[in-house]
Design a protein that fits this description.
It is built from 23 helices and 28 strands. The model is unreliable at about 1-5, about 55-65 and about 750-754 (pLDDT under 50). Catalyzes the phosphorylation of D-fructose 6-phosphate to fructose 1,6-bisphosphate by ATP, the first committing step of glycolysis. Its main location: cytoplasm.
Length: about 750
């Protein structure tokens, strides 16, 4: 992310003398409230005055205002803002709302001149409010705004869809049915596409890429083929805006009639509708809303009259600022490309994330396994503790391997299984339906290969294994390193190796995210919601909640941000008895307000002396007469459950990408009729770093690893810990030296300057 450095300044005085108004507009989206909360609290933290614009769901009301579309309506709005001295506007909404806000800003000086002439405001008032700053956050479940990977509300909508798909799957399998699921997305197929990836659907219809001519025959062949392979159900996902190549709508009823008439399959249709907009926001949307809210306030307070209206958005794992109208233009370009039949351009204009999803879907769903085999055997295994999403990664790797012409081998029970020959072929049908299953279907153990290397190397030779996919946590990383070190002694281990991080702890070097961490985070967040709700009647209660993570404080920190915790104790940020005392004091003050409950999270290994029991006893004693305490140790429930849409999608892309990389490496390493891989770049961790999925040599990551505590030495999420403290109303200093600089929208069609 390009950064801009500022001279050191006091962040608590950045907003002095300034006023910020927050409004939500357009369709409601889960996570908007988190964005409003963050904008308000960070605005107040900087010393600014903050105003709500009501009806303008969210806590403050969300509306599509007809008055605002007229100049008279905008004059009224301008008058209201000037009278309150508001020159900073934070707009949370879709592209329509943000375009309207930018038009308002463009007209601002003209509106003020008209108001002065009409005697509604004085010349002095107009001078004080001569410039209007606007920053947008995109709240839209459709994820239809170009320039951002994820809009606020999209992940929560995916949760609602996948909950329904999982429920439908069980009934469909009982009766051998075909289910057609219609999801929202009038102009954007993101929800449909990611849902299809996340549930392993047989077909998806999206507006950006209509099916080829003769799709009816192709679809029927696909469904018949799946049934002939033993599948008991078929799932077809349809975006509400799906069209054919000639621009005519493709409806769920039309597809149902086709399948019923041609194949005679028992077919059912489910239209989800507004269910997708409702419910509690996911952990991802809460954190996204909170991070974007902080970035929006900073963007407003740093803006000058020359700064264009911008949107704060997400690129990979990075908060970025983009010119609002560039994003709006690219969003309009998508619609134009679709209208002109330039569907490849439409996919590219949607952005890298959308394009990657589409390419992965096409590879896994549309390509039949080749008749010619590659004579390559690729083994897949799980290592370490089980986590949700492991099976999705295995399924994706197996299917991609078969598509490449390889023979795929399943290794059961980790390195133990590799050493003891628990290895068998795994087929296309054997991994069907694995995407939504939690835990590890292959079986997994924590044992490392070092002491069994002789047996491991013999079995690699016996089963003629040419490449290895290791899916797991810190043990997978260390096990991979041990295999690399063993290459000096055992030639059999000189094969390409890829490690895919999968652990609730999110502690694998080389990746910002691990498969399984999002599911665990949602489990903790929803549990904290219920725990807090239990205090709604009793009041004056503080909950101490212990989370997993080993020595890594990721879960405690992110769950703290998502659940609105008052503190989160972690190993990476040392704390003393004085810090504990300050936290108790803070809660004693909080109990004097209208919010009479507290939430404290503690990572299981944050401090060997300040245990959960100790902190519980301390808070109980110090809070006597003011609040009482309860403690909860969440335990292994954090490793269980069905994977979230994020983990299913992430695992599917990681599994597919790892096998494509191995296929290329095998070509590089083929010498004199055999595979020989002994260079550092032939054994890598596949990880998400900032904005992209990257392969990093295992050997290169050693320097950034704290092996004693099983964590990376540098962890990106530590920088956002202060946000949690500010939102909990702690008086701390926020580092304002590093904030996102204004970037430009990048697309691959050449229709807009980079």
């Amino acid at each position: 992310m390009s950064k801009v450095l500022h001279p050191t300044r006091d962040p608590t005085k950045m907003g002095l003398g300034k006023s910020i108004a927050v409004l939500t507009s357009g369709g409601d989206a889960q996570g908007m409230n988190a964005a409003v909360r963050a904008t308000v609290r960070v605005g107040l933290y900087t010393g600014a005055k903050v105003y709500f614009v009501h009806e303008g769901g969210t806590v403050i009301g969300s509306a599509r205002c007809k008055d605002f579309r007229t100049r008279e309506g905008r004059m009224k709005a301008a008058c209201n803002l000037v009278k309150l001295g508001i020159t900073n506007l934070c707009v949370i909404g879709g592209d329509g709302s943000l375009t309207g806000a930018n038009e308002f800003r463009t007209e601002w000086s003209g509106l003020l001149a008209d108001l002065v002439r009409a005697g509604k405001i004085s010349a002095e008032e107009a001078k004080k409010s001569s410039h209007l700053n606007i920053v947008g956050m995109v709240g839209s479940i459709d994820n239809d705004f170009c320039g951002t990977d994820m809009t606020i509300g999209t992940d929560s909508a995916l949760h609602r869809i996948i909950e329904v798909v999982d429920a439908i799957t069980t009934t469909a399998q009982s009766h051998q049915r075909t289910f057609i699921l219609e999801v929202m997305g009038r102009h954007c197929g993101y929800l449909a596409l990611v849902s299809a990836l996340a549930c392993g659907a047989d077909w998806v219809f999206i507006p950006e890429m209509p099916p080829d001519e003769g799709w009816e025959d192709h679809l029927c062949r696909r469904l018949m083929d799946q049934r002939s392979r033993g599948s008991r159900l078929n799932v077809i996902i349809v975006a509400e805006g799906a069209i054919s190549r000639d621009g005519k709508p493709i409806t769920s009823d039309q597809i149902k009639k086709l399948v019923t008439d041609r194949l005679g399959f028992d077919t059912r249709t489910t239209v989800l509708g507004h269910v997708q907009r409702g419910g509690t926001p996911s952990a991802f949307d809460r954190i996204l809303g909170s991070r974007m809210g902080v970035e929006a306030v900073m963007a407003l307070l740093e803006a000058t009259p020359d700064t264009p209206a911008c949107v704060v958005s997400l690129s990979g794992n990075q908060a970025v600022r983009l010119p609002l109208m560039e994003c709006v233009q690219v969003t309009k370009d998508v619609t134009a490309a679709m209208a002109q039949g330039k569907f490849e351009d439409a996919i590219k204009l949607r952005g890298r994330s959308f394009e990657n999803n589409w390419n992965t879907y096409k590879l896994l769903a549309h390509i039949n396994p080749p008749d010619v085999k590659s004579n390559i055997n690729v083994a897949v295994m799980n290592i370490g503790a089980p986590c949700a999403g492991m099976n999705a990664a295995v399924r994706s790797a197996v299917k991609m391997g078969i598509i490449q012409g390889h023979s795929m081998l399943a290794v059961h029970d980790g390195f133990d299984g590799l050493a003891h020959g628990q290895i068998e072929p795994i087929t296309w049908t054997s991994v069907s339906g694995w995407t939504g299953i939690g835990g590890s279907m292959l079986g997994t153990k924590r044992t490392l290969p070092g002491k069994m290397m002789e047996e491991v190397s013999l079995n690699i030779a016996k089963y003629n294994i040419h490449a290895l996919v290791i899916i797991g946590g810190f043990e997978a990383y260390v096990g991979g390193l041990e295999l690399v070190q063993a290459r000096e002694k055992y030639e059999e281990v000189c094969i390409p190796i890829v490690v895919i991080p999968a652990t609730v702890s999110n502690n694998v070097p080389g990746s910002d995210f691990s498969i399984g961490a999002d599911t665990a985070l949602n489990t903790i967040t929803s549990t904290c919601d219920r725990i807090k709700q239990s205090a709604a009647g009793t009041k004056r209660r503080v909950f101490i909640v212990e989370t997993m993570g080993g020595y890594c404080g990721y879960l405690a920190t992110m769950a703290g941000l998502a659940a609105g915790a008052d503190a989160a104790y972690i190993f990476e940020e040392k704390f003393t008895i004085r810090d504990l005392e300050a936290n108790v004091e803070h809660l004693l003050e909080k109990m004097k307000t209208t919010v009479k409950r507290g939430l404290i999270l503690r990572n299981e290994n944050c401090n060997s002396n300040y245990t959960t029991d100790f902190i519980f006893s301390l808070y109980s004693e110090e809070g006597k007469g003011v609040f009482d305490c309860r403690k909860n140790v969440l335990g292994h429930m954090q490793q269980g459950g069905t994977p979230t849409p994020f983990d299913r999608n992430f695992a599917t892309k990681m599994g597919a990408k790892s096998v494509l990389w191995l296929t290329e490496k095998l070509k590089e390493c083929y010498r004199h009729g055999r595979i020989f891989a002994n260079t550092p770049d032939s054994a890598c961790v596949l990880g998400m770093k900032k904005r992209a999925l990257n392969f990093q040599p295992l050997a290169d990551l050693k320097a950034d690893t704290d092996f004693e505590h099983r964590i990376p030495k540098t962890q990106w999420w530590l920088k956002i810990r202060p946000i949690m403290k500010i939102l909990a109303k702690y008086d701390i200093k926020l580092d304002t030296s590093e904030h996102a600089n204004l970037e430009h929208v990048v697309n691959k069609t050449g229709s807009l300057k980079k």
